[in-house]
Amino acid sequence: MNIDTLIHARWIIPVEPDSRVYDHHSIAIDSGKIVAILPASAAMEQFSALEEHYLDRHALIPGLINAHTHAAMTLFRGLADDLPLMQWLNDHIWPAEQKWIGPEFVSDGSRLAIAEMLRSGTTCFNDMYLYPDHTAEIASSIGIRSVIGLIMVDFPTAWAKDPDEYLIRGERVHNNFRHDPMVRTAFAPHAPYTVSDGPLQRISTLAEELDIPVHMHLHETMNEIRQSIELYGKRPLQRLCDLGLASSRLIAVHMTQLEPYEIETLGQYGIHVVHCPESNLKLASGFCPVKELIEHGINVALGTDSAASNNDLDMFGEMRVASLLAKGITGDSTCLSAFTTLQMATINGARALGMDDISGSLTVDKAADIVAVDLGTISTQPLYDPISQIVYAGNSQLVSDVWIAGKQLLRNHELTNIDTAQVLRKTQSWKEKICQQIPVT
Amino acid sequence: MNIDTLIHARWIIPVEPDSRVYDHHSIAIDSGKIVAILPASAAMEQFSALEEHYLDRHALIPGLINAHTHAAMTLFRGLADDLPLMQWLNDHIWPAEQKWIGPEFVSDGSRLAIAEMLRSGTTCFNDMYLYPDHTAEIASSIGIRSVIGLIMVDFPTAWAKDPDEYLIRGERVHNNFRHDPMVRTAFAPHAPYTVSDGPLQRISTLAEELDIPVHMHLHETMNEIRQSIELYGKRPLQRLCDLGLASSRLIAVHMTQLEPYEIETLGQYGIHVVHCPESNLKLASGFCPVKELIEHGINVALGTDSAASNNDLDMFGEMRVASLLAKGITGDSTCLSAFTTLQMATINGARALGMDDISGSLTVDKAADIVAVDLGTISTQPLYDPISQIVYAGNSQLVSDVWIAGKQLLRNHELTNIDTAQVLRKTQSWKEKICQQIPVT
Question: Residue B438 above 80 pLDDT?
Fold first, then answer.
């Protein structure tokens, strides 16, 4: 049978249906989809491919899914660190955003972010930011899979002046990309404390009509809870339930403040949780009870949050910290095993975004979203268990090759579809402009 | 003036006397020592060097000091993960050790560890393991700085049969390396629960006589505390005080269980603490109260612990996790700033090991233990603050060049003094032997 691509690998870790690891197997790809996973010897007999790859010290894993980020903010990476949250926002991030955000900033920042994400094995990202049409455009042109948040806040920004305009512009973005196979959209009301009841109710209705998810920061800090009780007489999750937003469409990001009965609520409605451990630690927001959530059958995905609060978009670091932190916090060194953590970064992300039919695992008929991890280096030897090695000793620099929908976007550590030198030049020029305004050490 | 080496760098971060960052400066090196740090233009006028390096997108930092590891155990990296501590030790690590530990295992494991440490910017490590003479020998022949633990436990091992023999063999190692400028020794009684009062008292006396530190696991888990109270009627720190071991010679590793009055005790005696955040999290041991220790003026260094419980020897990961975890645990996002964390990984380590007169900062007359970090990559751009970038967005793969005592041991990411292919071959052969014994997935 003639096909597009054959990848022969030392190990294949499909993630579904379970934690099995295939030795010396191959993935056959045609028209962007996985058509077979089989022993290398059989693959060479059955298939004749236009392109063949021999990765004899590598593991193939499903493309990583960054379930929460603000890609364009990568241009603010490390702009202000070691500050209290409100000082960080009020004195640094918001003034910088007010001054600089526009179509060009968002395009250039998104391109920088996508370059970093591809180099570290991320094949799909769930974004929330202003000028989402520009992030969508850049992502689509490069070929990375994305879920673009149709941002909404009560107050005016450079993108829209009021909730009506956010909705109109958001729906326009949705329509413009509805036939793009690599771009999906989600409503993205920023947070319970920045969006009032009226707009949230409209989003609830529209999300059903358009059949898209709702992506929202939720229960990020204790302060958010206090403020909600003061203003609405209830905790934010209860308020969303009352507004009709609690459902399996809801992608609830952070969730560091949860009462036991709220964990039940999440399970009851099938709400997805996105855990961002590095951002939560760095901003001292609190701890998402991941072990308990998983025990209650709740789908938990992983996100990096923005590079302004992380300070990278590296899902390997996020996996490692997620697993270590859960063990440390619960006192249970067996929880969030390497495999559970890898599921969070792949299939759970796909489920949260409603695309587990096309990505999140290496399965016949799914899109060929594949990452090759080189486990033959000094820092990943000896190797007793590939999954353990990836999560506990792995790092983004081991990612050698990335395919999305069968198209190779990283080849032997080099981006095939992004001019790295140009990205670095543009980033440097933004840095110089931004530094003129804000004194930095 | 004729000298050996000139390194011109985009930034130099000396760590002492403070958090200053020099732009476009150079380090002049002669006979293994730093002779000057000055603007690049002045350096080119004043010095004529045999070797010159131009690192125009790099920051030079002091060599990182891994203040607690068990180098040879790197051969057990990922052998058994996601297990309770005692099951991990009883069913996996100890049987594997009993079966395999010997001079060849320790030599090969140490070489693998040193290769990883050099590639990730570590120029000095504080070790504790059996056959310390072999680790010392390998470290010395490669040229990395080491403090070799003269291991002691009550029970027999392949290395010695009883406390007397541990002491005799330990003193022999001390004497054999006393004139080696790159090797120092420390007494290394394993832990309060594995060494009884008599041997500890003798170590206390001998450490004074030989003028060397005492390196010990201390207050690692709640269980250790409980056991000590049961057996000795007091907590381990109090027991060490009573045995005369509390002093500025003592390097106390882990310290996850501390009462407020014990923090006072540490300060009073000038005891050094080594924080191993990734190991403590992974084994769910507890949290070292680093913020409080620093506020009490206690010297806190950083260590990776062994690759069997980490699972790497990467001090960049350790810095990042140390800083994030402290913020998360205390709820104070301003604590363990990037600079404080970099101090922990450099000058504080040197202080703990009693070698801050020769390493730990880029200072005239200190040894040229220098690491070049490439900050010009996609994942470290834009760059507003080099120190912040190193700690929060840095990773070990940014380390391009390493000098120890002026000798270049890593050049453009390649080890100059270790045959990487041979290390990988030997590691693979150990893995095959070990796997024959222990079924792995």
Answer: no
Q: Clarify whether residues A266 and A388 are in a common domain.
A: no
Alpha-carbon distance of A174 to A172, in angstroms, equals: 5
Provide, as residue numbers in chain A, all residues whose Cβ is less than 8 Å from the Cβ of B312: 379, 392-393
Is the separation of the CB atoms in A60 and A9 below 8 Å? yes
Question: A428 in contact with B at a CB cutoff of 8 Å?
Answer: yes
Q: Based on the fold, state whether residues A54 and A167 are members of the same structural domain.
A: no
Same domain, B76 and B58: no
CA-nearest residue to B306 within chain A is: A393
Do residues A220 and A76 share a domain? Answer: yes
Classify residue A412 by burial, with Cβ atoms within 10 Å: 0-12, 13-18, 19+: exposed
As a whole number, mean pLDDT of residues A122-148 equals: 98
- Distance, CA of B359 to CA of A378 (rounded, Å): 26
Residue B435's pLDDT band (cuts 50, 70, 90): confident
Interatomic CA distance for residues A31 and A58, integer angstroms: 24
Contact B62, B122 (CB under 8 A): no
Question: How many Cα neighbours within 13 Å face the side chain of A2?
Answer: 1
Check if the beta carbon of residue A119 is closer than 8 Å to that of residue B378. yes
CB pairs under 8 A between A and B: 210
Contact A147, A138 (CB under 8 A): no
Query: Which residues lie closer than 8 Å to A432 by C-beta, 6 or more apart?
Result: none
State the total domains in chain A.
2
B179 and B33: one domain?
no
Q: Which of B11, B377, B392 to mutate to test the interface with A (most CBs of A within 10 A)?
A: B392
CATH number of the structural domain spanning residue B53: 2.30.40.10
Chain centre to alpha carbon of residue B128:
11
What is the ipTM, given to two decimal places?
Answer: 0.96
Cβ distance B278 to A324 under 8 Å?
yes
What proportions of chain B, in percent to the nearest 5, are helix, strand and coil? Answer: 45, 25, 35
Contact list, A389 vs chain B (CB under 8 Å): 77-78, 311
- Assess if residue A360 is contained within a domain: no
| Nearest-by-CA chain A residue for B76 | A382
CATH number of the domain where residue A76 is located: 3.20.20.140
Q: Residue B230: which pLDDT band, with cuts at 50, 70 and 90?
A: very high
Question: Token match 């363990």: residue?
Answer: B336
β-strands A145-152, A122-127: how paired? parallel
> What residues make up the domain containing A15?
2-62+367-405
pLDDT the model gives residue A435: 87
Contacts of B397 in chain A (CB under 8 A): 395, 397
Q: How many helices (H) and strands (E) does chain A have?
A: 17, 16
Residues A34 and A136 in one domain: no
* Chain B CA closest to residue A422: B378
User: In this structure, is residue A431 part of a structural domain?
Assistant: no
In this structure, are A192 and A326 located in the same domain?
yes
Interface check for B57 against chain A (CB to CB < 8 A): the answer is: no
Could you tell me if residue B418 is inside a domain? Answer: no
Instruction: pLDDT band for B88, please (50, 70, 90 cuts).
Output: confident
Residue type, A193: Y
CB contact set of B68 (below 8 Å; sequence gap of 6+) = B126, B128, B215, B251, B253, B274, B276, B301, B303, B304, B305
Would you say residue B389 has pLDDT above 50? yes
What lies within 8 Å, CB to CB, of A57 at 6+ separation is A10, A374, A375, A376
Task: Give the global pTM.
Answer: 0.97
Q: Would B425 be classed as within a structural domain?
A: no
- Say whether both B253 and B324 belong to one domain: yes
Burial readout A149-166 (b: 16 or more C-beta within 10 A, e: otherwise): bbbbbeeeeebbeebeeb
**Which of A84, A116, A441 comes nearest B333 by C-beta?**
A84
